[in-house]
Amino acid sequence: MNKLKDRLYHKIQEHRVRTTKLLKDHGDKVIDQVTVSQLIGGMRGIKSLVTDISYLDPYEGIRYRGYTLPEVLKKLPKAEGAEMPFVEGLYYLLLTGEIPSLEEVSRVRVMFRNRRVIPRYVWQVIDSFPSESHPMAIFSAAVMSLQRESHFNIKYKRGMSKMDYWDSTFEDATNLLAKMPLIAAYIYNKLYHPEKGHRYPDPSLDFGANFAYMIGKDKPYDDVSRMYFIIHADHESGNVSAHTGHLVASSLSDVYYSTSAMINGLAGPLHGLANQEVLRWLQGLRDQMNGRLPSEEEMKKYVWDTLNSGQVIPGYGHAVLRKTDPRYTVQREFCLKHMPDDELFKYVDALYKVVPDILREQGKAKNPWPNVDAQSGVVQWHYGVTQFDFYTVLFAIGRAFGVLSNIIWDRALGYPLERPKSITTEMLEKMVQSEPSLVNTN
Ligand code: CMX
């Protein structure tokens, strides 16, 4: 067994006892109540999932394994001269809850490097897509096509103990994670730089630096990649992409099916695709201004026009957060250091000054503050990744770390098939009439 897997197994054995005890001693304890508005309103806030990989506090933002993002970025080992840590170290942290040493990260790097081989049929699947296809559709299909490589499926068919599900899931997850940047880079080069062709990975480079190399970007884009993959990795289990991955995997579909489904959920404009929408919306403003920076009044008018036409302001608001997203702040600080004079960055910064007040005045959004997507496209644009429909693919690579770490743990702890109960509107109407306490909105 490799060192990471060894450590993970140790953690799993410790944790199984806790889950078993909770179920055995407290299985009937009530944790939450459900209101009618939650039932009709997308299940907002109902405590109905368990994960130890990350926790999202509405005011503080995300913590991975108890660490805030600034702590994660500070504590995880870095390459010499790098500003951002190795993404491989994040995988170790998400899986085990421990900050790895440089040596432990080196071992994970070798493990990823040895799994970078992509079967030829994956390139053929990508090549068969029309060039106008959205990169998220191509990415999802390419991941899906790898399904025949699943170790979990082979072992399941042969007959495998439930206690061992996590092991082959770990193998599948690690294989897929190692391959995702290569697939994404191939899609990028094919769609946007066909004249340059495919670039093979550089075995000397880490996850983030190799991705930068494969899409032809110089420093500091290696740090941009690392930052991007790390900050997008997880946002606890209820968001659409994480929940989709978990749900699909709960039927014992393998990680290829689950990750492809996760990518499809992320591709919606209310979720990961918002990073592309922000850029599209900002371009609209820039076009109206003929390239000059708008005055505060002009900016306010653009925001109000968007709202009055019934559209949302992309990159603002959140289902859980009630303050500025720390993922926005991490990127903003990177921008202030590396690109303070960037024109788009100035637009985004100017928007930060006007949008929250307008959303408050409109009175609909519960959270008027920016989320991660308000800032991330600007960083990519600055370093020449101007094809904004590609941004969500980058988000998906990062998100796969959290989703796959969760699926490994789901299997380790024997989480069952997910199956909430639904009722009809008529039943609901009858229930609220006969049981007034059910409509208590406290
Ligand atoms: N602009 C305009 N209206 C907004 C808004 C925004 N940025 N954010 C919320 N609202 C509106 C909602 O559309 C809703 O309106 P209705 O009552 O007419 O349906 C109302 O305010 C209440 O919504 P909420 O409870 O504050 O927010 P939700 O939990 O329903 O939705 C989210 C959260 C993110 C979908 C929403 O804020 C939004 O659409 N934001 C813009 C898209 C975006 O940036 N998405 C990315 C989120 C991060 C990510 O997942 O990547």
From TrEMBL:
The keyword Magnesium does not apply. Pathway: Carbohydrate metabolism; tricarboxylic acid cycle; isocitrate from oxaloacetate: step 1/2. SUPFAM superfamilies: Citrate synthase. Its EC number is 2.3.3.16. Gene3D superfamilies: Citrate Synthase, domain 1, Cytochrome P450-Terp, domain 2. GO terms for molecular function: citrate synthase activity. GO terms for biological process: carbohydrate metabolic process; tricarboxylic acid cycle. PROSITE patterns: CITRATE_SYNTHASE. It holds the Pfam family Citrate_synt. Keywords: Acyltransferase, Transferase. Belongs to the citrate synthase family. This is citrate synthase (unknown stereospecificity). It comes from Seonamhaeicola maritimus. The lineage of its organism: Bacteria, Pseudomonadati, Bacteroidota, Flavobacteriia, Flavobacteriales.
